[in-house]
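REQUEST
  id: r-88c1
  op: predict_structure
  target: Translation initiation factor IF-2
  payload:
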Amino acid sequence: MKRPTPPRLAKGGKKWQEEEIIDEVKEKAGKGGPKGKRVKPILDDDFEDDDLLDEEGLDIPTTIQASLSIARPPKPKAARPAQPVIAAAIAAPTSRANKKASHSNRGEQNRRQEAEPKRDRPEKIVVTGPLTVQELANELAVADTEIVKILFLKGMAVSITQNLDIPTITLVGKELEVEVETAEPEAEARKITEMIDVADLEHLIRRPPVVTIMGHVDHGKTTLLDSIRKTKVAAGEAGGITQHIGAYHVDIEHDSKLHQIVFLDTPGHEAFTAMRARGARVTDIAILVVAADDGVRPQTVEAISHAQAAEVPIVVAINKIDKEGAQPDRVKQELTHYGLTPEEWGGETIMVPVSAIKGENLDTLLEMILLVAEVGELSANPDRLAKGTVIEAHLDKAKGAVATLLIQNGTLHVGDMLVAGSAFGKVRAMVDDRGRRVDAASPSFAVEVLGLSDVPAAGDDFEVFENEKEARSIAGDRADKQRLSRLLQGRVTLTTLSAQAQEGELKELNLILKGDVQGSVEAIVGSLKQIPQNEVQIRMLLASAGEITQTDIDLAAASGAVIIGFNTTYASGARQAADEAGVDVREYNIIYKLLEDIQGALEGLLEPELVEEPLGQCEVRAVFPVGKGAVAGCYVQSGKLVRNCKLRVRRGGKIVYEGVLDSLKRIKEDAREVNAGYECGINVDKFHDWVEGDIIEAYQMVTKRRTLTLTR
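RESPONSE
  id: r-88c1
  status: 200
  body:
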């Protein structure tokens, strides 16, 4: 249908011919038309904004718009037959037809919204993740345009289909006086680590205890484990420090029966606190190693707190009793301050003096472990699908993703469908701690598993599913949530900007961290978070296990980041790409050095501070009037006085003036400085009220590099 030409402006003026417009509208409404013909009525939705403009793009006055509104006929309640233009759009869509259909749908939606009763605005909403503007508007019972307006006034331009993160949702709720509460989805809040179901009770059997060795660095944890296993693993460790978790099982003969114990070896360095905490969470018994010649140290206290928080029984191994200066009783006394009282002193904690080097009392220690395990009645159901925890994971060039899994319930078989964190895969092969291929792993055993699609995070729970489709779906959902979580963490929100504004200008150090295994990466990230970040902040763009790849180089070049490699290597072509792009790549194999360098880099971002540096002190011995002022005759008692330095005048312990030393003379001659033991004359332009006995303190302001102190 060809639209009637909009009315023209009257010649010689800018007034609208209102009567002509109203007549034309009546013609559109079917009340009359050119040459007596009836014109088909135009739907309200076809009446676009352009219909309210003349050919030159000028707005029709409000009075005319009101007339247009009055002139439109009321819509019948019954359903109208489809218009030819809509039918044509369905048969052969065109841009014009699509546009009309869109307007028609929008008009229908607006009419439905007007017909619906308005909901009261809630006092509180609960969100589990990001929401679009439309979804948030529905939750808050407001128009989506209202939310767009609020965010626009706050400096954020958003569309109604754009996702809003939780801080932004909270901001909108605050503006609308609605409380926003965050909650985890029920599926994620569900504890997968609930290892024993009601159905398992009929099939429970005794299982080997899982033991974690904990304690301070250099107290002999790895050596003790070596003595038990009769193999040495400390020689290959950088600096003698265990860098990642290992799991080993040993056979013990006790009461004419063969028993097994599974050991988790957690590193002793304080940076691996998170790994040690995870070890205490999956373990049944904690062996606390304390050196008899050193006593309780800070990491010893950390290990105790982790084990006690996990409600894990503690057996204390007082090591190095063969060394000079060993005082086992002093160690026992120190441990009583942390709730560990030895049995021989009336307590409940088993304490065994041992020598890892000479192998003394190791049999006694193992017997005590079996005794505690027997009291704990450790059991599991081997006839069910396996569940457990990822002890360690890394990416191997030849094998792909490799994960060390600790089975806590059920039995894991080759060919099982496995979901570990967000990683999914079919178990292709399993290798035990002695390098032998196995087809099944029963409860309490740790095995290396091949076949996962990705490297899971150390500490993730794993579970076996019978249905491959279900397993793949769960892994995909977890991956999406982790990806979204990382995006939200890296996004700058109004809340963080406000906090930065209060703290002053915030500087960032962009880092990309690649490590040999996921446990090391997690530990380093945890240590870096302990560095105070009020004025300078570490922005971790990527932290993962694996080689330094060309993709990492590209990301660092685009974001101005520094790449930190810990016990890892370059992928093919990555080193050359780093040189060409000018990316700074730092390689480390000792975590102490890594943390020192990062802290130094952060301190370099701090603005230097001005500090007062004392120069010297003198006493006023005489006052000489000169013109309208006075000169103080002084004796330099200590240090030196320097011309144009700052000075402070004290009289009777109180400061009477602070300013600048304008003139300094020595025997009527100008002097640049006067040292201790000499007399001099001092003149200050703005102070002449000298009194004999005044003390003048000279100092200067110097810039000093600021330092950061690691929080504990």
